[in-house]
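Complex record, two chains
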Amino acid sequence: MASAARLLLALLAAAAAVGPCAGAGRVDLWPMPASVARGAQTLLVSRDLKLSTAGSNYSDGRGILREAFQRMVAVVELDHAINGSYNGRGSPVLAGVRVVVRSPNDELNFGVDESYKLSVPATGNPLYAQIEAQTVFGALHALETFSQLCNFDFNARLIELHSAPWTIMDMPRFHYRGLLIDTSRHYLPVPVIKSVIDSMTFSKLNILHWHIVDEQSFPLQIPSYPKLWNGAYSYSERYTFDDAIDIVQYAEKRGVNVLAEIDVPGHALSWGVGYPSLWPSAICKEPLDVSNDFTFQVINGILSDFSKIFKFKFVHLGGDEVNTSCWTTTPRIKSWLIQHGMNESDAYRYFVLRTQKIAISHGYDIINWEETFNNFGDKLDRKTVVHNWLGSGVAEKVVTAGLRCIVSNQDKWYLDHLDATWEGFYMNEPLTNIHNPEQQRLVLGGEVCMWGEHIDASDIQQTIWPRAAAAAERLWTPIEKLAKDAGSVAARLARFRCLLNQRGVAAAPLAGYGRSAPSEPGSCLRQ
Amino acid sequence: MASAARLLLALLAAAAAVGPCAGAGRVDLWPMPASVARGAQTLLVSRDLKLSTAGSNYSDGRGILREAFQRMVAVVELDHAINGSYNGRGSPVLAGVRVVVRSPNDELNFGVDESYKLSVPATGNPLYAQIEAQTVFGALHALETFSQLCNFDFNARLIELHSAPWTIMDMPRFHYRGLLIDTSRHYLPVPVIKSVIDSMTFSKLNILHWHIVDEQSFPLQIPSYPKLWNGAYSYSERYTFDDAIDIVQYAEKRGVNVLAEIDVPGHALSWGVGYPSLWPSAICKEPLDVSNDFTFQVINGILSDFSKIFKFKFVHLGGDEVNTSCWTTTPRIKSWLIQHGMNESDAYRYFVLRTQKIAISHGYDIINWEETFNNFGDKLDRKTVVHNWLGSGVAEKVVTAGLRCIVSNQDKWYLDHLDATWEGFYMNEPLTNIHNPEQQRLVLGGEVCMWGEHIDASDIQQTIWPRAAAAAERLWTPIEKLAKDAGSVAARLARFRCLLNQRGVAAAPLAGYGRSAPSEPGSCLRQ
């Protein structure tokens, strides 16, 4: 209750401060940039805002920058009628944005330079905002930041930009800022996945971890093994191979990598619908049959097909929650274990390591859930990134062992845990107890996980937002600029939640637990 | 529980029947058309589907038909990659849709002819579907029906249309098929309102009842009284006058009328934020001051401004839940009552009737909530439509008195009642106990109400859908074609819910109460 009362006070203060010039006294950006300086001048933003790329080394052959600029203009307008007059206002008019990208290369991959500098001068004729970035993906982040500087003026019916001149220098604290979606427990239609990708860009998340398949359904077409998607829930709850290509390209054009996962040897029951020999037996269907070479042929086929679509440096091979009892209760497999001198845990390790080798043969680095590390960390390929989920304190052990780590401890960063609060999402620090800079560098970042048992197209967005945004600031903003007390960012996050709503994203109120309905009538800013 | 078990069985049967050719044995349309005949031929739908208007009397100067056609093509694709080959499939290719509209007039208003005939032949070269309609708005409904005949073929990566030839003759049972939204209890951003309008067209709802303002906030700019929107929740939770024009035009181009409401004399506290003299006193702020001519000047100003935006035949003047105690506890008003020989209920009647006259002077017919009828039905202007909400059995009384009626009985058709089930929405019959055809004609239709106390941009869509769709079929489909038992349409409604999800609408599962999360992993079709 004390915490709830503090939140209420913060939100009341936020709402009280709202007015046409409220922007002047504060920085309303989410996530907070590394460095911000501002002035006190109000600009009008031209209705016909120009994009200039003079001086850029980037040719934009795929239209990444041009399309991002158009999207930015659209979200700034928030679907308001922009039809006021520029005459007689006395404010300088911002004519355009000049974007200088130094690198001609627009291949998106892990660790790409996402830094940018955004300057909005208060004088000049014509007056242009300036974006400088090493890559187009840094420029995309700059455009998002720019969009958050703009406000609709309800009296003038124009877009205004307060507090110019602005100078913003920015770069992410972590390269890995992920969100997991799960299309096995419930199918997510393609437009829904795309809208999730769009919403990620608003808080600068950059990795969509696509947990494609699990025990319950296998929705993706795999050309090498065309019966695998017989494990889909229904005829229409599927993705063609070309749909996956389209999703990846859609994400890449927005600076979002797609990390594909197959979760083996557990969490793979649905594979056997099309190929029953992948099951230990007709009555014991999980984990995948470790004794059958066909199992690894299928994995090889999937990862070979993946390598044509998913160009991200990493592939996720799962490896969590493996109950090996089917291997010992199935006589054929039990014999195989004895013949190879393996017990169940040997076989689990054998499966994971053999699968790792296959993935590496297709050019991937590997991510595995933490049980693989907890059970045989010293045997994992050194290219392995260990994906924490069971609890806190794991990252320390992983980096001490010299492996890389991603943090998703379920008590704080599982979005399906509706009792995990946004404050908990905000305060969850991936580098807790890790002080050695070399070890710190092994923590690639973190990921919030939207597991799909109770999530479908109807409720995914308000279960993700605004809590994922709280984690996004933790992952983006320099640690010294992060709030020591989540309550002190509550009002700014509430405003960002309202902005998401204005952009059509069904972000839930801050108050209450995950995806709570508003408890009473009131301003978006106070809920 | 018995009902839940029946639903489960129906949904299991639905899921079991799903396959690429499942469409052949059933009519998967929502709402069910008046008349449907079909064959057994599968067509391929051209990737470059043409719109022909040869023979049409309608020039489409505003692009209503052209844009609707483009939207139809987009929703049919469901964002799948459509890139298969048409060669060697042996199926005829549907080259386009020919639309013949008889009336050149595209003014949308109450009672406009919405009927259409849709034929999809199985032979012809070039092969064209045929739409005939009196108005472009009938043609829009035909395009929606056509879109529901199309399926994505996951193997061929093309759009297919099963069961040709089709002949569908269709028209609505009721002219008034409404959905209420409430932007006073929570502000709804413009893109959210537009997405609600889009989703309405999928089940052929045709009236958006915009409950703009209430006690809690006054979000709309009123040029005649520019301080009224000082009663908004915050600077940004507002609509400019031009935003309202834009929303109305957006709706009209989709065949959706916008019914504007001011709810007087109660439910108007927020008006006084800008003009405190509208309050009886600073300590007793509702209902509006009946004794002050300024009150009626403001109402006149609002309705005058409304008449420039809201071209619908009707305006809604509220009139419900009026607690008149402030009128007798405020000495000034009490004196006025005595002076005019009125008691409280006289004054309530006086207020409503005077407001009706103002609305009529601006060319409107009037809708009032049922309390006005219940208290002084014989005094209401004969142009009044009585809007039922308190319970069932009201429509009978209204039409017996010779007035028109809209049905929204809260126990069945209030969407904010989360315990109101989709079965209840489906089975709620507006003509219950009304047998005289002349009296039946006085029932204009019905409306489902999405009151906003616990609804904002985060949860509106899944609280509306799929329950509003259940009512939409009740309001559209001839009574003899409606199911006698809601359970028998459960599987078809589940498929329509999945279709909404595929189109990006966050429609909730059928199972459970309003906007329940899915209870467990599973196919969309079974939930």
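Note: Chain B is about 35% helix and 20% strand.
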